[in-house]
Design a protein that fits this description.
386 residues; mainly beta; Thrombin, subunit H; Pdz3 Domain; six-stranded antiparallel β-barrel; 26 strands; 40% strand; globular
Amino acid sequence: MKSWHRIVYAIAIFVIAGIAALSGAVVGGITVYQNVANRQLVVAAPTTTSVGPAVKGVPASTTEITITNIETPITQAVENVGPAVVTVMGIIPGQTTFFGQTTDQPVSGSGVIISDQGYILTNNHVVESTTSVSVIFADGDERPAQIVGRDVFSDVAVLKVDGKLPAVAILGNSDSLKPGETVIAIGSPLGDFKNTVTVGVISATGRSIDISENYRMEGLLQTDAAINQGNSGGPLVNLAGEVVGINALIVRGAGYGSAVAEGLGFAIPANTVQAISQQLIENGYVSYPYLGVSWQWITPSIAARYGLPVESGAYISGVESGSPADKAGLQQGDIVTQIGDTKLDADHPFINALYLFSAGNSTTLEVVRGQDTLNLQVTFGEHTAP
């Protein structure tokens, strides 16, 4: 399973010891300063400058250089969406120590305003453990925010603020995105660099990332636009100035000792976000099918260790009395190997196969019980937890 890092940033204070002298040089009318990290900061040239040597008795030839503001589709998109991007600040309560002291942990992410009623999109993992949330607008104004609803499976959350809004972003059609298309990520990396803009392309669509052995996020947008800790919840924007995704996670490597990867960022498509956020705004939760079991995912190694008859599936460790599973005849010790038309395996985990259905839908569960294979009819209830 790929290791991945969600990009919530816990604010830290770094103390930098020592100040190195900066050396400056003037080159062709542009001042270049070399800093201690050997990075160059280029300061814009004057509006006009003289070029070429003076010849005795002949006026020196001059070339007039005029610097103008250059508008591009990228700058226009940033101007449209940037004011609607916010920094999301939260407080996670700390544990009480032996001496009775409690230290709260501040965390931060990003978000984007999507409604003139004050609704803001962000990631569930930015706010799920917080006791209080506020947002900082691009102009520095900070206001308290209410968590309207959140969904752990899609990693989408909706906040709400009161008062006048600086701007509202428009959600675009993520289904029309093509690999190679230019996109812009806007957010607050590390919590301090508010409304940072980075540019890249859609590297791929329809990507899946294993969150655990039990669940994988599917249908994600892959981008090489630089996103870092604190970018979670910020918008991925197309050149039309539409939000086509919500930045969610980055992948650094494929496991212990593996090479470190860069430029592997993933965003939740806008069409998914729109469907989820609509339910959160209307109901405060997202409706999912409810089966009513506790279970353990079977891997090939677990199957070999315990001599199980299948290499993949969901081992049922408990059945809730009166639940849809109970009514269907599912028993403790059964192994569910297929839900409807979906055979359970590493690419089709139990939760993903289950969530292809809605509350009230009926389907067939393929179940291994001892040496027998059974087909049980089930009608799903409704699960409304975050």
